[in-house]
Amino acid sequence: MIGWMLAVMIALSLTLAVGPTDAGDVARGQKVNAERCAKCHGKTGKGDGASLKKLDVDVKPVDWTDKKAMAKWNDADTAKIIRQGGKGIGKSEVMPAYQGKLSDAEIDDLLAYIRSLSK
After folding, report:
1. 114 is in which domain, residue-wise?
2. Pick from 77, 85, 70, 76: which is nearest to 36 by CA?
């Protein structure tokens, strides 16, 4: 019995040690959005950024406030889009890749902000 309990405790501690980190900070993510994303995704995430008109593209960014649209991507998929950009996932080349430009913590923060908009 003690051996079984010890095994469960060890397994639980290993799971917690390699589990997801902090979910990110919405306020910091909002700042990342303002610095990196708002020009296309808009200040409020509606996909209405001012730079889109200058780019003259047919593709419009996803409206982060649209709960149904945002449900299509889980957090891992969204983080992959941020890291690899549109081209990296076979989508619009207009979306830049932020791998190496944003830290993992900044991506977590941005993801927390993006998710907060569609609740």
Report:
1. 37-119
2. 85
Residue 5 belongs to some domain of the structure: no
Distance between CA atoms of residues 110 and 27, nearest Å: 9
- pTM comes to 0.78
CA–CA gap between residue 113 and residue 91 (Å, rounded): 22
pLDDT in tens, the chain (119 residues): 655 544 445 544 444 433 334 589 999 999 999 999 999 999 999 999 988 878 877 778 899 999 999 999 999 999 999 999 999 998 888 899 999 999 999 999 999 999 999 98
Residues 6+ apart with CB under 8 A from 62: 47, 69, 70
Q: What is the CATH number of the domain that holds 53?
A: 1.10.760
The count of structural domains within the chain is 1
DSSP 3-state of 54 = helix
